[in-house]
Amino acid sequence: MTDKRSDAYRDYKGDEFSAPEGGVPHTTGGVQMAATKAPPQYGRFIAMAAGVLGFIIWALMPELPDAVDPEGQHFALNQQARLALGLFVLAAIWWVFEVVPVGVTAITIGVVQALFHIRDARTAFTDFMDPSVWFIVGALTIGTAFARSGLTNRIAYRMLAIVGERVSMIYLGAFVMTAGLTLVMAHSAVAPAVFPLLAVIHSIYSEDGKPTRFGKGIFIGMAFTAGAGSIITLFGAARGAVAIGFYRDLVGREITFFELTYYMLPVGVVMIIVLWLYIRFAFTPEKTRIPGLQERARELHKTLGPLSLREWTTIVITVGAVLGMSLRSVVPWLGAIDKSAIILTATVLLFVTGCLSLRHLESLPLNIILLFGGAMSIGFCLWQTGAAQWLAIYWLNALPTSSAFLFVVGMTVFILIMTNLIMNVAAIAISLPVALAIAPYLGVAPEVILYSALAAAGMPFLALVGAAPNAIAYQSRQFSALEFFRAGVPASALLVIVIAIFVWKIWPWMGMPITVPT
After folding, report:
1. How many structural domains comprise the chain?
2. Which residue range forms the structural domain that includes residue 441?
3. Which tens digits make up the pLDDT trace of 259-310?
4. Domain for residue 26, yes or no?
5. Is 32 within the bounds of a domain?
6. Are 113 and 124 in contact (CB under 8 A)?
7. What is the pTM of this model?
8. Dihedral angle computed from the Cα positions of residues 295, 299, 300 and 301, in that order, rounded to the nearest 10 degrees
9. For residues 447 and 309, what is the distance between their CA atoms, to the nearest angstrom?
10. How far apart are the C-alpha atoms of 31 and 215, rounded to whole Å?
11. What is each CA distance from 34 to 18, 135, 156, in whole angstroms?
12. Vertex 450, ends 444 and 451: CA angle to 5°?
């Protein structure tokens, strides 16, 4: 059977692949995913109008009362801040319902800021070139190098030979592998490295490349479990180091690397298991088994032969970048180098050594890169106009003061919402200082505030802009932004329940103080 390409197969370009008589495709290059169906036009126009209406309502809204923090400091919501909140509503609706490509919505964020003088044009559009956006470019390039060199096929066949023919175990194997890698490297780098591997697995599952329930499950599950794994160590994401810095400055106590892992490891492991069970239920695969898969995977792995020079070069460059980023927290001179510079050094080397060429550079997904640029721009816009601080203080002041448990859960929900809409580092920076300031008046220990906030900030399951793995999973074209949101609502509820159980029973049992004398 010969694979027939269509215009929908755009993103992961590679060699043709064919299926032997057994029905299992022998992939020799990248895998292209089918595009999802466009939504009905009337629904698109309704969503587009709803976003514009949300912006207009905030733009015309009269002046609202100041937010007042526990120290008596006032935070006003001026006209620019109200416009920022309106733009935030517009972007959220347009992103979720995909009224235009997500990258075009991101461009709209910059355009509206300039047209309505929310921030000056240079500031608004410079955010699109933030180092964090360049980090995504580097991470996507490494993922492309893995696919082109054949390493993804090699790893995929080996994993399938181990986990067997049951599709539920393929889910588990993919999720454990993803989460495991986040223990030693940033989840924003893990996702693009794992993505081509999952694409190969899906091509073996579905010979025609069309979207499937299994495809939705494995890619959405990858995004979710990348977040769950990233909370366990300081290597998983920058948010941990930022939160610990705030904690040290405000509380006067240092949290060590191993102390953080001691309390976060059980949360991460429980969430990986919970998410696996949830994905199995929410995206029950069309097939329960793939007969002959295990043996066929072993045969295909053997045909690859020894590692090629290109594979070895890709491995050495990637491992060097991972080590450089991982050691930044313990090696002073590396800590002074931005992680984006390290991963982009690897990007340059991949082209210098011939592992990648011009066509690979031109095939990078601009839509996803723009999505992240827009996410950075709206996040900085909310922060710099004061809109985010106003929201955080109002929310936290409105939480119940009679129960430490309810206060912690309410704070967790707020951070969970915010981290889906702006950078999780920004969500931590906005919310954690306010929560730590309120906590002593309620008899809440600062430790439980810190760890609950980190757990919530690490798992944004609702929006594509919440984390790099979400947007990279979307590149598979297996699901829409709305489908991701729908899958994320129950997953977020499960996360809140798990954190609540840890606050209530497990963390106290492990020795974490939950309350302090008022």
Report:
1. 1
2. 44-129+167-287+365-510
3. 888 999 999 999 999 999 999 999 999 988 877 778 878 888 888 889 999 9
4. no
5. no
6. yes
7. 0.74
8. 100
9. 49
10. 13
11. 17, 27, 20
12. 105
